[in-house]
Amino acid sequence: MKRKVYLVQFVLLFVLLFTTGARVHLNAQEPYKPTWNSLKTHQTPQWLKDGKFGIYTHWGIYSVPAQGPNATWYANSVYTKPDGPARKHFEENYGKLTPDFGYKDFIPKFTGSKFNADEWADLFQKAGARFAGPVAEHHDGFAMWDTKYSEWNAAKMGPKRDVVGELAKAIKKRNMKFVTAFHHAEQWFYFPTYDKRYDSGNPKYSGLYGPIHEKGALPDKAFLDKWEGKIIEVIDKYDPDFIWFDFGLRIITDSYKQDMLAYFYNHAAKNNKEVVVTYKSHDLPPFAGLLDWELGQEPDLTYYDWITDTSIDNGEGWGYVKGLGFKSVDNLVDNLVDRVSKNGYLLLNVGPMPDGSIPEEAKEKLLGLGKWLQMNGEAIYGTTTWGIAGEGPTKLGKPSGNGFNEKNDIAYTGQDIRFTVKDNNMYATVLDWPGEKVLIKSFAPKGTNWSGLYPSEIASVTMLGDGKELKWEITSEGMSIETPKTKPCDYAFVFKIVRKSPFK
What is the dihedral of CA 150, 154, 160, 163, to 10 degrees? Predict the structure, then answer.
């Protein structure tokens, strides 16, 4: 009798494990439980605190039409805005949407014929990135890895390459941490699967466009199981160090989010590694992961750490957009320095072309940033914040919603200075050339409000890239430092102030 009971229990457990996407936690010894109390004890990895800067890529079917302003939302606009410019562009260039023709028919043109994971990883490393990786699946439902959950993936269609797998190998080989980004929760509302006039409403194509459901309906169990199952599959197959989530995470129920996070954190603990998960504002409870500001940054120093995801293009293209310009190297450098001084990190997006090549101008910008970091990275990598982020006349507004306070045309001045520290060294990075002298007002003695420097604690002052000792003095106005005769680089200039104990 007992044998029959045990057999029934085993069969039920087997069915439960293999017919649902949700994880079943059987090990009571795992350090993280699927509760917010437990998950909020997870800490930001030291490698992220030290590394500061990473790169990720938006590369998918949307790279084929390459239309902006936001390439990754092109298909949604085509299907949901019949009188809009995206629909007009689609019909003029490709034909009318029908129950059998639509977005999916871009896949054969998404060739990836020039995709080379090692070339991408080399470029990201030369740019100074310490972590990198791809969007594993965007809103459109097309997975960039060889998944068992859908035939609609890059290993079986389009490039016919396991893009996530190849990049995982190439990036880890260069001792960078591996990033995977997920937007696939948005698939639930991205296409109008309720509209039978279009191929998105044809059940034959639901594997790509998502399950057919009424407009405004909540995600069902099958969708949630698949959502979680794909993430678990990527964790198991590619062992990412960093998982980034878009705003669609908010439509996923707490139990699924808790289960997924516990699985990822426990998987890392089992393998003796540190990992991080990012989320948009209000999508997770504070400290269950790392807060992400999209196209945004904090205006002042914060007592919590955070990250920005922004794009190298001079707009909000995200994926490759024909004719879209790129941010200047000066802008990229200044925004990296500003974020690090305020307890932030930077995840910079690059959008490759449909053949898998990265636009030449984007390469130039990345290499320019890398050149600056090669000389001045001492003031970025492995640093921490000081008592204040910096000083100067150029101000930013507060993030709105999920971020969106970044300014592409911001012009920092020679009076805009940002501070970082490491060991006994203080770094004062001036965001434009200050002239023959710089005055750092924050270092002035101001009685009980003073948080500056004692003259007796300063051992030496140099500029990175120059190395020669510079003349300086501290007065009631601040610390005045003479600049070198020639500029050591083209952008943001770093004064290195070596300190000692003032009375030893």
Answer: -130
